[in-house]
Amino acid sequence: MDHQDLSFHLARHVARTRFEDLPQGAVDAAKKSVLDLLGVSLAASGTIPAIKGVMEFVRAHGGSPHCGVLGFEDRLPPAMAAFANGAMAHCLDYDDVAPDGNHASSSLIPAVLAVAEFKGGVSGKQLITAVALGQDIFLRLRRSLHQRLDWLVTTVLGVFSATAAVSYVLASGEDKIAHSLGIATLGSSGTLEMRFGTGSDLGELYAGFVAKNAVMAGMLAAAGITGVQKVFEGQAGIMPVYFGNDYDRSKVLDGLGEDFYGRAMQYKPWPVCGIANTYIHAVLQVVREKRIHPGDIVAIRPFVGDFQQRMCKPLNERRRPGGAMDARFSLPFCLAVAAVYGDVKVEHFGTASLADPAVLAMTDKVTPIDDSAFDWVGAMPEARVEIDLNHGETVVATSEGTPGSASNPLGWDDLVGKFHHCASLAANPKPPATLVKVTDMLSELEGLDDATKLMRLICEPSNLR
User: Fold this and answer.
1) Helix, strand, or coil here: 367?
2) Residues 133 and 188 in one domain
3) What is the radius of gyration, based on Cα positions, of the chain?
4) What is the DSSP letter of 451?
5) For residue 411, what are the contacts with CB-CB under 8 A and spacing of at least 6?
């Protein structure tokens, strides 16, 4: 029996992987994820109030101006840049998502971009490989666990996948990669109370903490700092302490280096909690097909499983979210927005929409129905919604064909359109010609000799254009 801790297997995997080892699906997904994340981060820079506090913090703790900050013209040390860009990455809940939930990229990509810009000379192929490795490692660790409603595994496990990717960019050897994972244990934290609770900015900003910790772990290990040796499976490792040893190590190791799970990443059509997309699609589909107007609707009944129930209870509180992130995690509010506006956009979660009498009146018509058939076990569950109309008809809608799902994925052109809309909302919007150069550069990322050119282009000060 193999007695090596999982961390050593993962370190060996990272040290030995090259771009040529990646299947085309993993390459395509990595490029899509970078494009998607840059766009949603730019949108967050200009629409999320909490980013003002983040920027005040990083400016007060700045240092050598190595790395760009999306949506702003600041340049910061790598850890602070990773924190700022990571803080924006998940703000809108618009970043990519795994088929079984959780967000691999929102901490991974900001960390990788910061270290690549700091190091310089990191090729597009190396950047793609780092992202593909991080996505694969995250999904392997995530899928080794049963579905849980306690730890926020995006942060608890995401720090390890992001650290592994950072160490790849730094070209650390196998030993130092293993040490970086050991150091990353100090950044492995976070519970789902960040999502289930209300009134906090942390549900928006958490990826920044993970990205910063990943940069620190990778760079400290590269500088010779040693870390915990048995990261995951020691007597007080992550698996026994956090998860009671309720994991399947074969799901981490089987096919390692052959199958890269990031190929299955999904991209969101709407800026809400991933599982809400299926319900939104159901509502929008029937509203558009039957030309249902808001005044026609008497009641909306979404059928909800265990996780979705957290998005509905306490019902009165979920019907009146106090902030944008709470609104994105409120199923009644999301469905009300879809029914009233006939779409769901970033702009629909601003202050005006949160107080829109038409939307609030519609939230009062949303009554969830608990149904264990929609519990989240493995892949993200489907959705069912019933809508009562004022002439006595009840229409039934399902999530079949949800945009962004495995059966109806968003393509490159879809994501380019999403990027341009998001970039238009940035704190400091770039000219359309610059945005076209960015998307063109990303479409041919594997041919880029220095990935620093990407961040330089998108973060270039206005007076230099």
Assistant:
1) coil
2) yes
3) 22
4) T
5) none
In a domain, 438, yes or no: no
Return the exposure string of 365-395: e unless at least 16 CB atoms fall within 10 Å of the residue's CB, then b.
bbebeeeeebebeeebbbbbbbbbeeeeeee
Residues 349 and 243 both lie in one domain: no
Q: Of 18-22, 110-114, 449-453, where does mean pLDDT reach its minimum? A: 449-453
The domain boundary, picked from 212, 238, 264, lies at: 264
- Residue 374 φ/ψ, nearest 5 degrees: -110, 20
Residue-wise pLDDT tens digits, 94-123: 999 998 888 999 999 999 999 999 999 999
- In this prediction the pTM is 0.96
Q: Whose CA is closest to 45, among 417, 342, 351, 428?
A: 428
Residue numbers of the domain that contains 376: 274-398
Q: From 353, 370, 398, give the residue that closes a domain.
A: 398
My answer on whether 296 and 205 are in the same domain is no
Instruction: Give the confidence band of 465 by pLDDT, cuts at 50, 70, 90.
Output: very low
* pLDDT score of 165 more than 60: yes
Let me know if residue 15 belongs to a domain: yes
Residue 129, in any domain of the structure:
yes
Q: With respect to residue 443, please indicate whether it lies within any of the assigned structural domains.
A: no
End-to-end CA distance of the chain: 60
- CB-based contacts of 399, cutoff 8 Å, min separation 6: 278, 279, 281, 282, 382, 383, 384, 405
